[in-house]
Amino acid sequence: MTVLVTGGAGYIGSHVVRLLRERGTSVVIADDVSNGVRARTEGIPTLEIDLATDVTPKVLRDFVTEHSVDSVIHFAARKQVGESVQRPAWYYSQNVGSLANVLMAIEQTSVERVVFSSSAAVYGEPDTGAVAEDAPTRPINPYGETKLAGEQLLADSVTALGISVTSLRYFNVAGAGWPDLGDTAVQNLVPMVFERLDAGDQPKIFGDDYPTPDGTCIRDYIHVLDLAEAHLAALDHLDARRGAGERPAASAFNVGTGEGSSVREVVDAIARASGMALEPEVLPRRAGDPPKLIADPTRIREVLGWQARHGLDEIVASAWRAHIAG
Predict the structure, then answer these.
(1) CA 208, CA 217: separation in Å to the nearest integer?
(2) What is the pLDDT of residue 129?
(3) What is the pLDDT of residue 242?
(4) Residues linked to residue 257 through DSSP beta bridges, in sequence order
(5) Long-range pairs for 237-244 at CB < 8 Å and ≥24 separation?
(6) Percentage of residues of the chain with pLDDT beyond 70
(7) What is the pLDDT of residues 226-281, one digit of tens each?
């Protein structure tokens, strides 16, 4: 098996690349390194390319053919909710456009399996406390809409391309599996707080008037290493289905813990990990943020045999170690 990891120089992608290589799987990377770290690709065949450009299908097809790629894990995307509200057309061109280019690139190649980096944002504001995969998909921001469109595009491509597809709907990712693979993009809550601390400022909380116990948004935080292991479980499951002669199909799984933590609780965990006294600055709500989003991870546990192993304090402590090491 040779796996193409798009976005393999990035935060989550680099964890998956390392786990794959640790178990002896051949890996190649395609990444524009806009949010990644070039050093994480050293020793790995890497195509440095913006996947949303018109040249991608041909250039990437040649790369896939050259390295006999048979599986793709697609991470490469933009992921800032607020930015997607401000630049919706660009988000569609980047997220849906890049996936479409990847699918055109793998036409008539040996690729049989695709694992897609989706998002819990496809659910929007669910009515239930813990959302399952059969819940209505009603995104409330363009970012979530692009992820849902990506899932639909992949489902439509199953028969056309003869590929088996799994979409993993992430909840909130944080932490570091190794100190050198920390989140450097400063697009998620934990690194955003760290950036404030480095500047000698207090953390910011966007809205404390949500209908939650402490007024701040509640999210399901998952350790990036747990998430990376979920990708390997998904890839193995697709491989087993192929080996058993099952027909190509598309499936989706939540990747979360089933437990929620508020923004204030995350800030408190950072205070414990860093040993600092923190007094967050409360600002108005950001556009497109639902009050509460927690996973029901039953399906992924029952079908893939995966479940999260790390809690909030472990997540934050590992992120802090990576931060001070960097």
Answers:
(1) 8
(2) 73
(3) 87
(4) none
(5) 237/166, 237/303, 237/304, 238/71, 238/112, 238/113, 238/115, 238/164, 238/165, 238/166, 239/1, 239/71, 239/113, 241/164, 242/112, 242/113, 242/164
(6) 100
(7) 999 999 999 999 999 988 999 999 999 999 999 999 999 999 999 999 999 999 99
Does one domain contain both 61 and 19? yes
- List beta partners, residue 214: none
Q: What secondary structure letter does DSSP report for 207?
A: -
Q: How many domains in the chain?
A: 2
Asked whether residue 247 falls in the same domain as residue 279, the answer is: no
Same domain, 234 and 280: no
Q: Which domain holds residue 202?
A: 176-219+259-325
Residue carrying the six token digits 């697609």: 74
Largest CA-CA distance found in the chain, in angstroms, rounded: 58
In angstroms, what is the C-alpha Rg of the chain?
19
Same domain, 284 and 139: no
Tokens (6 digits) for 146 = 């692009």
Residue 211 token pair: 């209908």
Are residues 120 and 99 part of one domain?
yes
pLDDT tens digit sequence for 197-230: 999 999 999 999 999 999 999 999 999 999 999 9
Q: Are 166 and 237 a contacting pair, CB within 8 Å? A: yes
Q: Exposed/middle/buried for 52, CB within 10 Å: 0-12, 13-18, 19+?
A: buried
- pLDDT-derived band at 188 (thresholds 50, 70, 90) equals confident
- Asked if residue 253 lies in contact with residue 300, where contact means CB atoms within 8 angstroms, the answer is yes
Considering the domain architecture, whether residues 81 and 209 belong to the same structural domain is answered as no
pLDDT digits (tens, 9 = 90+) for 81-109: 889 999 999 999 999 999 999 999 999 99
Which residues participate in catalysis according to the annotation? 143
